[in-house]
Amino acid sequence: MIDSVPLPSTDFCLRLARAHAAFVRRFDIALGNHHGISFGDFQVLNHLARADGGRLRRVDLADKLGLSASGVTRTLLPLEKIGLISRQPDPLDARVGFAAVTAVGEEMLVNATVTADLVSRDLLRGVAGTELDGMRTLMARFGAPAVPPAG
Question: pTM of this prediction?
Answer without folding.
Answer: 0.86
